[in-house]
Amino acid sequence: MEEGLKQRQFGRQAFGLDPAGYDTARPAYPAWVFDFLCEHCGLAPQTATFEIGAGTGTATRQLLKLGASPLIAIEPDIRLATFLRRTNPDAGLSIVNMPFEDAPLPECSFDLGLSATAFHWLDEDLSLAKVARLLRPTAWWAMLWNVFGDHDYPDPFHEATKSLLGPPLGPSGGTNGMPFALDVEARLTAMKRIDAFDSIEHRTSKWTLDLDTEQTLELYATYSNINIRPDRNEVLDHLRRIVVDEFQGRVTRHMITSLYVARRSR
């Protein structure tokens, strides 16, 4: 319990070192995700929505573009929240700068809830129970991740750098070698355990992320297990040498986008 609390506290401030750099470097979510939310989960103009762990707005911008309003974005890191507000002046967007667990949100008031590459930092059962209380009957909940790495394909860059970088910090690595976002049985079981959802579904897609040297460095500079290190700059310099010397300045990462959706029971 204490270790989980420490991880959650770390996750609330692990990504705000360079918000603009984070926003530029992190890949967007595939278009099919938002098509699915529109076609199956009711995302449309005037959809009352909340987003957990909005960060710099990678998913937020798409929600706003597709009409989510009002949209309440919950982001505990003041640096990310400030960037999100400055770069998204939309009047329909409100930002709550506190952890989701503490955020005073109106119950039974939302048509859609979303968390994009953030929900693993929360206490799963307590947070899902709160999500259910916030949603109106028949409203939808969605959890979304972009996962770096696919066990079905060789990952030479990961193999070349894992001793330098170490394992991921926090709960994203999951248990028993299965990333949190890809542990389908565990995620579906958790949503069923709350006994407040039906029409629970999981979908994935596989794709590749091709990066040059600078793009690789910019992406890895956003990783929490690099930013926490006192030798961060030396690690990034070493990473650059690996990209240039061993990969001729081109890196390909195999990606999996993982989406879970569930409907609030009547």
UniProtKB/TrEMBL annotation:
It comes from the Bacteria. GO terms for biological process: methylation. PANTHER family: METHYLTRANSF_11 DOMAIN-CONTAINING PROTEIN, METHYLTRANSFERASE TYPE 11 DOMAIN-CONTAINING PROTEIN. Belongs to the methyltransferase superfamily. It comes from Occallatibacter riparius. Keywords: Methyltransferase, Transferase. CDD domains: AdoMet_MTases. One of its GO terms (molecular function) is S-adenosylmethionine-dependent methyltransferase activity. This is Class I SAM-dependent methyltransferase. The keyword Transferase applies. Pfam families: Methyltransf_11. Residues 51-139 form the Methyltransferase type domain.
